[in-house]
Each structure stands twice: as C-alpha cells, then as structure tokens.
Amino acid sequence: METALVSCDDHLDLNMLPADVWTRRMSAKWGDRTPQVVDQENGPAQWMADGQRWGMWSGKRFSFGGPKPILTAYDRGGVEDLTELRAGHAKLRLEDMDRDNVWGHLVFGPVTSIKTNDPDFMRDAYAAFNDWMFDDFCSVAPDRLIGVAMLPPYPEAAYEELKRLAEKGGVRQANLQIAVAEPRLEDKRWEPLFDLLEQSGIVLAFHVTVFPKAGDAFDKYKGSPGATFLHAKMFIEQFLDPFVDLFAWGILERHPKLNIVIAESGVGWVPWVVEELDYRHWRLWECSDFWEDKGGIPHKMKPSEVFKRQVYGTFQQSPTAMRLLEFWGPNNLLWASDYPHPDSIWPNSVRTIGETMGHMDPEVVRGLVGGNAAKLYGLDLSKATVRANLAIGKETVAA
After folding, report:
1. Which of these, 115, 147, 168, 182, is most buried using a 10 Å CB contact count?
2. CA end-to-end distance (rounded Å), the chain
C-alpha cells in the first residue's frame, strides 16, 4: 500500500538548535541574559540564559567516552556527527525524513520549559523561539515541516503569545507544557486561552516533558538500571490530573471546538480512565435531585462522548494501541516516529508500521499514519512527493 506518512510527534530540542536562535531575535536590552551557547572547559557546550543552565548544545564536538547509557535515533541510524545539528537544519532534517519515507513532521520545540523567574524575559524568549521556528525553519518546507508553537506555562502569558501567533497566521498547533503549567486547568484564568483556541482553530497539545517537578523522584535512583522503568510511570503522572480536569470541570464540554492532542504519554491507560469518568457521570446523575436547588449539573454529555469528539492521542510502535481501536475509534489516533529521540523508530518507520499494523485494514492504517493528521491539521496530502510503500493486508501475506 502506497501512502503519505505524517508523523505527529517529532522534536527539535535545545541541543539541536542553531546557536543564534535567541541572540538574533531578542532585544539588545537583555544583554548577557539572552539565551546563548557557552563553551565549557571540561564538558559539552551549554545553553545559558538569565543566569541559569538550560541544557547541552551538540554543535561542538564532545564525547563523555565509553559506552552510552541511552541511544538516540541517530545512534541507531548510524549518524555519528551531531555537530551538523540535523534536527535543527531544515535541509538535513528533510533528508532524514526522505530516508525514513516520511512526508511530514509535527515539530515540537524543546520539551523543557524556558527557565526564568522574569515574566517579561520569559515572554520575549518564547516569542523569539516561535518566530524562528515559523519564519526561519518551517518556512523552508511549510507543507512538510509543521511547527508546534511553544506556549508559556501561565495563562495570561500563554494567551498573549497565542493571540500574537494567531494574528500572524500559519500556526496549526500549540503546545502547553502541562506538567509545569500553573495554576491547574479548572482556574478561570485559563478560559481566555480556551476561547481563543476555539476561535482560531489552533489545536492544543499536551506533551510529556523530560524535567517536570515530578522528575525530582529520579534523583534518588540516578545510576541505577531500575531508573529506566520509572519513565513509564512519569509519562502517565504528568497527564492524569490535567486529563481528568478537562472533564471534571467541563472544559471540553464548554468548548466543543477545542481539539486536544495528548502526545507521547501512551494511549493504553486512557480507556480505563474514560470508562471510570463515565461511571462517575452516571453516579452524579443518579442523584440529580440532590443538585436541583444547587445550580443543577452542568455535565450534560458523557465524558466518553466528549472524548471521542475532541481528544486525539499519538503512538509510535504500540500493539496495545492497535488493540484499542474499538475504544479510540479509527480517526483519533495519530502515528508518530518521535524523531530523533531515544524512543524514536527512525529510520525504520516503514518496517515498524508493517510489523505493528500489517494485519489491519489498509484504509484504517492509511488514516492512522497520515489521513487523520490531514483532517485535524488541514493538510493536503495530494501534494506529497514522498510516499511510503507499506506491507499491509494482502501485501503482508505476499511478503
């Protein structure tokens, strides 16, 4: 089966950004506080900003020596020279996409929030990154490099940045680092953001972050093989409270045109939670007479009905997800390659899709690997000049 692949969760982290992303775009008034790359005598170059270390930069060759504790997609794909900054160099990234037979990437920026205690500096730093993402990077191939804007984790700043981007145009999705967002989503301060998302048609993403406050639990176990398994817990922990909040406080029901993508948190835990929410909804209405003189019950729809209308999830290589299609439905799951992260299946996306979906209906697979994304984001896949040949259905038997 030939089809266009659109990966709905891919990355451009701090280590792969050009060194001048912020120095070329932020006001000179910030001086040395502006995010910049600083060389280290006995270690890799680092991003420093506003007196804080943000993370490593790969543009300068450095090796810790010895075996690596974590392999990335580049390691598995035989890419040794990280100083090329392939993920952040549009031409090289497109070459990697071609190698993987993938037409489009939804490109998430750094999965760590911008660290600063200065709200004005924070606003300028987010705006500078987003402008670079859309004006310099995605503009090289806007049909293929689909940027995901970064929103500050506070309601007023997030609203201001989304409003600026919506007026500018060209943004299909924006990411809120939900693990560090404050206050919780039931707070009315978030309502203007939800209203604007509805009005603009921009999809809201919640993406797992690597360094949430909950990640402090990892410190005790660093250097232990067992720490590897804690990621499974961490991914769900970051999403559980805000996911339930979407239904408990009627956020999605009040905003029926607000679409949300939960990215890289797994999709297998979701069915039980939604099932339990439905049960609690039934229990609530079972005692509706109790609430009659207290303003009534605002939750008219079952959570599962709201979920199917407005919530999408990404997956990479998940037999579990394929077995849960009856719950999720064929239209609300979005395939991803997670390039170039350690969990990524690049450059073996075609093979992996065949291994995990080869037994399925070809038209369902066509939707999962690109068609659903095209509907959600308004993509015209008839323009795709890179297509994958997938071993699906009858072709699997022949193989």
Report:
1. 147
2. 12
pLDDT at 398: 39
Q: Find where tokens 């293929």 sit.
A: 144
- DSSP summary character for residue 58: T
Q: Which residues contact 45 (CB under 8 A, 6 or more apart)?
A: 37, 38, 39, 56, 57, 59, 60, 62
Residue 235 has a pLDDT of 83
- pLDDT tens for 33-48 read 999 999 988 889 999 9
Topology (CATH level 3) of domain 2-398: TIM Barrel (3.20.20)
**Helices (H), ranges, the chain:** 73-76, 90-99, 119-131, 155-168, 191-200, 230-248, 251-254, 270-286, 288-291, 303-310, 319-323, 325-328, 349-357, 362-366, 372-377, 394-398
Give the model confidence (pLDDT) of 213-239 as tens digits. Answer: 444 555 676 778 888 888 788 889 899
Q: Is the pLDDT of residue 69 over 90?
A: no
Strands laid side by side in the 260-263 sheet: 6-11, 104-108, 145-151, 173-176, 203-207, 260-263, 311-315, 333-335
Contact yes or no for 211/202 (Cβ under 8 A): no
Q: What is the pLDDT at residue 113?
A: 66
Indicate the SS3 state at residue 280.
helix
pTM higher than 0.70: yes
Angle (nearest 5°) at CA 134 between 309 and 75 = 85
What 3-state DSSP class applies to 334? strand
Q: Do 244 and 186 form a contact (C-beta atoms < 8 A)? A: no
User: Is the pLDDT confidence value at 101 over 90?
Assistant: yes
Residues pairing with 82 in the sheet: none
Q: Is 259 exposed, middle or buried (0-12, 13-18, 19+ CB in 10 A)?
A: buried
Domain ranges of the chain: 2-398
Distance separating alpha carbons of residues 54 and 115, to the nearest angstrom: 7
Beta strands 104-108 and 52-56, pairing class? unpaired
